[in-house]
Structures are given as structure tokens and as C-alpha cells.
Amino acid sequence: MSGKRNLELYFHIPFCVRKCNYCDFLSFSGDEKTKASYMDALFREVREKAGNYTDYQVVSVFVGGGTPSVVSERDMAALLSTVRECFVLREDAEITIEVNPGTVTLEKLKEYRKAGFNRLSIGLQSADDGELRQIGRIHTYGQFLDTYGWALDAGFENINVDIMSALPGQSLASYVTTLKKLISLPKPPVHISAYSLILEEGTVLMDRYERGELVLPDEETDRAMYEETGRILEDHGYHRYEISNYALPGFACRHNVGYWTRTDYVGFGIGAASLVGEVRFRNDADLAGYLEDPSGREADREELTIEQQMEETMFLGLRLTAGVDRAAFQTRFKTTVEKVYGDVINANIRDGLLRYTDDGERLCLTEKGLSLSNYVMAQFIF
Ligand code: SF4
User: Ligand 1 centre from 26 Cα, in Å?
Assistant: First the structure.
């Protein structure tokens, strides 16, 4: 045992080929010069801030975006070298990079592997090219198949594929076809993230919706898609370990489980959020300012109150199907979860939305609670 505390690192790469129609993430297209300057700024930020974390060992690295794969593989390798140089990186650390079909080659993926990435997250969203066009993705299902095959050839075994439900024009049957195509691949992905589309302000899809030009699946179909996801994937050996995440045994995303169990993490790059000790802080989202002074601008910083820490422990912990560990809550807050949330817990147990595990050690959402998770979790906010 090293005696060091665990730390997760996140790197935000904001560049994409072009904006998808549903996207409200901090992402935009950028020319090669801007990308190179951004990566230089990122290396500088790591060097300037790493000294704050000498008591920590890094257990996971996640390079997300945006589309990290639009940046050169050389820069990605340099990013991991900088991390190794500046932090104690545990030998068995999970090191993920997000990629999109249409932005990688076999050679690029081999370079990622050589650099030390050991997990890949591929954005597919749908196996139906018409649905992909509707949501403005840059790729086809055929390009996904190429990417997936190259990822395996490059030696990646730990691969996540993102899919989406409730897309414009999507039927339950076409959604199920996407799922079935994925699990029928000669070597299916070990991890699948399946999120439902949420229309966000300021996106192309929201504009179309407001003009009455968008046909979306109704709520009942949306619910049926969620239920089918669980049923089909669980029949094929996947375990739903979080509301929208499914993994074969041993392949839950350690980085994301860390977020949900409130492991300390530090985000680098514009808009990146961090939680260290009980302090939440976030980098400013302004690109020009970041390129000038990558460590100098914070958008906000707040020390969490005990109430906020309890709220987060509950609504993040309940995202996991394993639920909230009652003993850990008690050790941490010197009171029981029932003393703080007794009324909420009892009401939700009565409504069939929450339950205790058989050994009584954990509190978790029921099957019904999983599909009404936002409603349940909101009740844990003071
Ligand atoms: S690839 Fe992802 S981050 Fe980029 S525009 Fe599309 S949804 Fe947004």
C-alpha cells in the first residue's frame, strides 16, 4: 500500500469535426493550429498544477470531449507522458480515450495503445444511418464497424460503445435492432452506455422541435426502450451497474464509478470540473483566456457544506444499482442515513421505488425506481 489517496484525472478536448444536432457540450470545430496550442496549454496546466497532488496516486485517466480523436496521436501520447512525468500513475490505472468513427485509423488506434491507453469509448449512438443523419453525426454505421474492428486489431479489449434511445424518427424496433447488432458482433463490446436523448436549449434539434418539425418517440416508447435495454443486455450477460451503463463482469468503468462514489478528481482543460477533498471547482470555459494562462482562470470554487456532501452521496450513490452503503454513510457523517432521510426513504419504499438489499447493508433503487430515478433522487436534495 502506498498510503497515497486515490485520484482520477479528466482531460477535456473540446474539438469536434462539427457540432451534432443534439449537442450542448463544450465543443466546437478548431483548426490544426488551435488544437496544437490547446494541447500545449493542457501540458502546461498539468505541469503547473501537479504539485498540488503529491499525496495522491492516479487510479484512472479519462480523455473526453468533444472528440479527442481529432487531435494528433502524437499529442495524445505526449499527454500521457506528461501525466506520468508529473503524477504518480498507478500501474494498473484505467486509461480511457473517447473516439468517434470517421476520426481514427488503425494506425492511430495502435499509437494510442502504444502510448498506454487501455480503454476505448466509441460514440456510435445508432446503427441506423437515417437516425445518425437526423442527429447530425458525422459517420455511418459502416464507419463504426471499421473503427470497432480496428480497435480490436490494435489490441483494445476494454471497449465501450455509446448508443442513444428516443431519437427523432426512432421506433422501438429500430432501437432494438441497434442493440442486437452490437451484441451480435463477433466480439461484442464489454461495456455499453445507453442514454436517452434529452433536448437541450440552443441545439438544432430543440429549434426543430419548437418549429414542430421533429417527431420524437412518445414517453411510453421511451420507457419501453429503457426496459428493453435492460432485458436484452442482461440476457446477454451484461450487468446494469448504473442507471444507463451496462458491463460484462469486471468491466464497469472505474473512472465513472469513481465519480458516482465521490472519489477525488481533477479536470484539466476548458470548463473541466474537479472535486478535491470537499471542494468543487471548475475551469473557465473561455478558450482564448485558457490558451494565454491555462492555470489562471477558475469559473467557480465552492467548499461543500455537510448537507451538500450528504445530498451528493445520496443522488450520486443511488445512480449505481449497488446503491448507497449505509455503514460508509454513517462513518463519514457520524449519523445514519435514516436519521437524515427517514421520511424520504420510507415514502419511496412504500411507493416501491427504493429498497434495502437483502443483507440490509445498502439502499438502492428498485426496478421501478430505476426508470423514475430523477424523481426519486430529487427528493434527496434538502
Ligand atoms: S461528437 Fe460529441 S461532443 Fe462532439 S458535437 Fe457530437 S455530441 Fe457533441
Answer: 9
Cα 65–chain centre separation: 10
Nearest to 118 by CA among 155, 81, 86, 88: 155
Q: Cα–Cα distance between 382 and 379 in angstroms, integer?
A: 8
CB neighbours of residue 162 within 10 Å:
18
The H or E element that residue 92 is part of is strand 89-99
Determine the distance separating the centroid of ligand 1 and the alpha carbon of 126, expressed in angstroms.
14
Ligand 1 nearest-atom number relative to CA 65: 3
DSSP 8-class letter at 128: -
Quote the pTM value.
0.96
Q: What tens digit of pLDDT does each residue of 95-125 get?
A: 999 999 999 999 999 999 999 999 999 999 9
Decide: helix, strand or coil at residue 296. Answer: coil
Antiparallel, parallel or unpaired: β 362-365 and 354-356: antiparallel
On whether the CB atoms of residues 379 and 342 are closer than 8 A, the answer is no
Residue 317 Cβ < 6 Å to ligand 1: no
Output the CA 74–ligand 1 centroid distance in Å. Answer: 22
Rg (CA), the chain: 21
End-to-end CA separation in angstroms for the chain: 38
Give the closest residue (by CA) to ligand 1 atom 7. Answer: 23
Q: Which three cell numbers stand for residue 115?
A: 502510448
Nearest CA to ligand 1 atom 6: 20
67 CB less than 6 Å from ligand 1? yes
Question: Per-residue pLDDT tens for 171-200?
Answer: 999 999 999 999 999 999 999 999 999 999
Residue nearest atom 5 of ligand 1, based on CA coordinates: 19
Neighbour order of strands in the sheet with 56-65? 239-242, 245-247, 191-196, 158-165, 119-125, 89-99, 56-65, 5-13, 265-268, 273-276, 279-283, 298-303
| Nearest CA-CA partner of 88 in 58, 43, 52 | 58
Structural domains of the chain, with CATH: 5-259 (3.20.20.70), 306-315+322-382 (1.10.10)
Q: Which residues of the chain have pLDDT under 50?
A: none
